[in-house]
């Protein structure tokens, strides 16, 4: 079933008026429609000068207030929709506004030269579908995370031509009936996951090398895993239908207790369906008010200092059970939201550009712009790239997070 992004029956806005208690839009079909200003907190907390500085985009369908970084649509007004901004995001915005700090994308991220720089007429608007597809596909092609695995029998790092080869290698290990091969596959999930830290400053393919850094700390602990856990994993992956994070977490494999590495395992099992929820992407998306991840909880009160996204199990009589805590269930649901959003975006881009993106490719395209806090980009490059990431997280023109997720659920095979 196809989903229409914007109904053709929705008239265009031709003018806007905002008072202390009402938002009014004058429409192209002669109608005038009003909504309580209290429904839109940014407008309610704005000065009259800020309210009067409005713009109309997307042929009359989108309403924008550049001084407030506020975006509404004619459809929202016609259907009686309130602002979709979370309370947490609004409080951060209001605190910044009262402190005289930047509150708009334009103020926080001045335009700079970049291969992925937005066109000047796209500033503060959603990308058109064509622009969105091009930016995302170019980023996926440029994805440069180390394509490496490790030969644990010979102590040798193996460099692959591309990530598809890495996927094939680890996937074959994870689906093997041989427990030792499965253990190597799970160890390679860890090895690959820490590869950006391990290989910083190194050239391609180092040959015979020892494990270092977090790989040295974490992988040996995993290799000591109880064989019963590996046997349970083998049974689990015989049927991936309905697979959830909790299923892998309940096995209690060492080093696989948080969303990032459990989602990496699911990605290698089925890249078309399961993306990784990288910690840096999660922090950035959450801070930007990305709706699918707004209920996410980190392992630190200050998310910027978080080291994982916990998926803790309940305790009963001092013993761990197979059930997730309330926090764990919320984080699992956020991951599932992320997965269906990535599938929905892949479907939209493939339909527009005749590509064959998968859920994991959408995540990798975003990773190119968000990346690691320890990468070699300058501050200017990082700010500019993250401004593009914000546009990608904002969905193509005419689409909302809920609409993309609804499409992603339909493509869930």
Shape annotation: elongated
Rg from alpha-carbon coordinates: 23 Å
Strand content: 5-15%
**Structural class of the helices, strands and pairings?**
mainly alpha
Task: Identify the strand order in the major beta sheet.
Answer: 1-2-3
Number of helices: 18
The low-confidence runs, each spanning 5 or more residues with pLDDT under 50, are: 1-8, 105-124, 199-204
User: Can you count the beta strands?
Assistant: 10
Helix-residue proportion: 40-55%
Terminal-residue CA separation = 14 Å
Overall pLDDT metric: 82
- Sheet having the most strands: 3 strands, antiparallel
Description of the structure:
By secondary structure, the chain is mainly alpha-helical. The protein folds into three domains: 9-90, NE0471 N-terminal domain-like, CATH 3.30.2020; 109-142 and 245-413, no CATH class; 145-238, no CATH class. Helix content is 45%, strand content 11%. The chain has 18 helices and ten strands. The chain has helices at 41-44, 48-52, 74-78, 87-98, 105-108, 129-142, 163-174, 179-193, 195-198, 213-223, 227-236, 245-249, 259-269, 279-287, 326-353, 359-370, 379-393, 401-410, and strands at 13-18, 22-27, 32-36, 55-57, 62-65, 70-73, 148-151, 156-159, 313-316, 319-324. It has a three-stranded antiparallel β-sheet with strand order 1-2-3. β9 (313-316) and β10 (319-324) form a beta hairpin. It starts with 12 loop residues before the first strand and ends with a helix.
């Amino acid at each position: 079933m196809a989903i229409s992004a914007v109904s053709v029956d929705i008239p265009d806005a031709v003018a806007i008026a905002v008072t202390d208690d009402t938002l009014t839009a004058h429409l192209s079909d002669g109608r005038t429609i009003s909504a309580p200003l209290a429904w839109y907190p940014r407008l309610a907390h704005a000065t009259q000068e800020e309210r009067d500085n409005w713009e109309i985009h997307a042929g009359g369908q989108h309403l924008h207030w550049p001084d407030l970084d506020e975006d509404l649509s004619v459809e929202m007004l016609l259907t009686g929709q309130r602002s979709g901004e979370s309370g947490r995001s609004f409080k951060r915005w209001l605190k910044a506004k009262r402190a005289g700090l930047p509150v708009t994308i334009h103020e926080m991220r001045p335009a700079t030269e970049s291969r992925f720089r937005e066109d000047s007429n796209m500033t503060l608007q959603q990308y058109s579908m064509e622009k969105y597809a091009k930016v995302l596909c170019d980023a996926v092609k440029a994805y440069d995370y180390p394509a490496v695995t490790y030969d644990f029998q010979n102590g040798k790092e193996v460099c692959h031509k591309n990530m598809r080869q890495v996927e094939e290698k680890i996937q074959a290990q994870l689906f093997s009936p041989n427990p030792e091969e499965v253990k190597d596959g799970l160890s390679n999930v860890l090895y690959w996951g820490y590869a950006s830290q391990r290989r910083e400053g190194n050239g391609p393919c180092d040959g015979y090398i020892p494990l270092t850094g977090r790989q040295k700390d974490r992988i040996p602990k995993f290799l000591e895993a109880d064989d019963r856990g590996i046997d349970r994993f083998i049974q689990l992956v015989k049927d991936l239908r309905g697979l959830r994070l909790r299923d892998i977490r309940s096995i209690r494999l060492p080093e696989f207790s948080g969303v990032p590495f459990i989602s990496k395992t699911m990605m290698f099992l089925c890249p078309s369906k399961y993306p990784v929820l990288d910690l840096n992407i999660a922090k950035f998306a959450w801070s930007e008010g990305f709706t699918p991840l707004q209920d996410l909880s980190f392992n630190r009160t200050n998310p910027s200092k978080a080291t994982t996204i916990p998926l803790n199990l309940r305790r009963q009589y001092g013993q761990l059970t197979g059930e997730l805590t309330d926090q764990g269930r919320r984080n699992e649901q956020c991951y599932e939201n992320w997965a269906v959003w990535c599938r929905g975006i892949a479907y939209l881009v493939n339909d527009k550009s005749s590509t064959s993106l998968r859920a994991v490719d959408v995540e990798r395209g975003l990773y190119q712009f968000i990346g690691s806090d320890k990468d070699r980009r300058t501050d200017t490059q990082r700010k500019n790239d993250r401004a593009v990431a914000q546009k990608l997280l904002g969905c193509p023109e005419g689409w909302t997070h809920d609409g993309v997720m609804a499409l992603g659920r339909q493509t869930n095979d």
